[in-house]
Design a protein that fits this description.
It is built from 14 helices and 16 strands. The chain has helices at residues 79-91, 96-112, 125-135, 154-166, 188-201, 221-226, 244-252, 261-266, 274-279, 299-314, 322-328, 331-336, 369-376, 403-417; strands at 2-12, 15-25, 28-34, 43-44, 52-56, 58-63, 115-122, 138-145, 174-180, 205-209, 234-238, 256-259, 284-286, 353-357, 382-387, 390-394.
Length: 419
């Protein structure tokens, strides 16, 4: 099926096409042009006569979508008290259906805020993949793994089973990776075992590294490299306490870093040396982390904070300019998991596109598009979100789901969680 989007602005290769049009054929952008498209027999996507700008879909490179029911749990607590005394006991009470519903709620929030792809780490992969399949987002789903709680190997087995069952499903929207939680919850032997499996499958490795001060001296990235942790595509979340030598290792092994500035600030873990990583040529992307450590799944907020905190830390206003933050939320995310057809609007690329209303008062005057998006933009500027050529958010509605029924079921389960 061919679809036409007409009379819009289009951000392409950092330049704006005014009064442009796009033709979407199935899940691909088949044509981009300026002026009026006269081709007949095309289905037209209604943007309600708004003055909109088409942007590549935003990519959330680190989150835990199944934790929507834990939003606000443990706010304003120290990191270890928050994690071990508040979050983990609540997670023990989550069931498959609540994780499914939580993932649906998380996708609703992400789609509303212009996120089209997310990299996930959590449990119950069958529930999460079912939610992603039903809703329509693109996701790299990794099973959270650990062996510090009398694990008998079942977590890794379930991860392998999920890979065999779901990897590449839903027209390739769903990819399965492996998510050893962290070196403080995984022994070296276990990390070696997970690394071997991930390398054999050429799958994505997703892991938390040096998020907190306490773990900063427990291991070096060189030690992790020696056991094979970085032998496949790897996204390392946080890296707040990465040393200069750690940064050298990240560069040497082409590891991507998922920067989560708001989560790191809220948990008082600090500010990652992202400026040094970028200087070293490391691919840095952006993540929200979960709503239990961030409270929001909005990459517009992350882009803004990522630019501002590093300027404040370095006292250099040219550090992490708006364009760098924007790339961290788009094309850098695609690079992290090796997808060459995401993060940019071009003919032949995937039709993962978002549309923002440039006449929203916070964006007026819309003179410098990238700067406006990063420094003035909000998730609420998004009027439509498309994945694989299908609308998953459109002017306050979610075309692929029954929003009210999902909310009702979620709240019924949520109330019982805290009884």
């Amino acid at each position: 099926m061919k679809k036409l989007i007409q009379g819009i602005q289009i951000l392409q290769n950092e330049k704006i096409i005014n009064n442009g049009y796009m033709i979407i054929e199935d899940d691909i952008i088949s044509e981009i042009g300026e002026g009026f498209c006269n081709e007949e027999d095309l289905s037209t996507i209604d943007l309600k006569n708004k003055k909109v700008l088409a942007l590549p879909g935003l990519i959330n490179s680190h989150t835990h979508s199944g934790m929507a029911a834990l939003k606000g749990a443990g706010d304003d607590l120290p990191f270890e008290e928050w994690l071990f005394n508040r979050i983990v006991p609540l997670e023990d009470r989550l069931d498959e259906e609540l994780i499914y519903l939580s993932t649906m709620i998380s996708q609703m929030e992400m789609a509303r805020n212009g996120i089209t792809t997310f990299v996930d780490m959590y449990m119950s992969l069958d529930s999460i993949t079912r939610a992603v399949s039903d809703f329509g987002m693109r996701a790299y789903i990794c099973r959270g793994l650990q062996d510090q709680a009398m694990d008998d190997g079942q977590r890794l087995k379930k991860n392998i089973d999920a890979y065999e069952k779901h990897h590449g499903s839903s027209n390739g929207r769903i990819s399965i990776g492996f998510g050893p939680h962290s070196p403080y919850l995984c022994s070296k032997n276990y990390l070696r075992k997970v690394s071997d499996v991930t390398s054999q499958l050429n799958a994505l490795m997703h892991i938390h590294l040096k998020e907190s001060q306490r773990e900063s001296d427990q291991y070096t990235f060189r030690e992790l490299a020696e056991i094979g942790l970085f032998n496949t595509k790897t996204i390392a979340a946080h890296c707040v306490y990465a040393s200069p030598e750690d940064i050298n290792v990240l560069q040497e092994f082409n590891v991507s870093v998922a920067h989560n500035p708001i989560s790191n600030l809220k948990l008082a873990n600090g500010i990652a040396p992202v400026d040094k990583m970028i200087e070293a040529g490391i691919n840095v992307c952006l993540g929200t982390d979960s709503v239990s450590s961030n409270n929001s799944l909005d990459l517009f907020r992350e882009m803004l904070v990522a630019s501002l905190i590093h300027k404040g830390k370095t006292k250099d206003p040219q550090v992490i300019p708006a364009l760098t933050s924007f790339k961290m939320a788009t094309v850098n995310g695609a690079k992290a998991f090796g997808h060459k057809n995401l993060g940019i609007i071009e003919k032949g690329k995937k039709a993962d596109i978002i549309f923002i209303d440039t006449e929203n008062i916070n964006l007026i005057p819309f003179k410098n598009p990238i700067s406006n998006i990063v420094y003035s933009g909000r998730g609420s500027d998004v009027v439509a979100t498309m994945v694989d050529g299908q609308l998953i958010y459109h002017f306050g509605t979610y075309p692929t789901i029954d929003e009210q029924e999902i909310k009702k079921q979620f709240m019924d389960k949520f109330v019982r969680l805290y009884e």
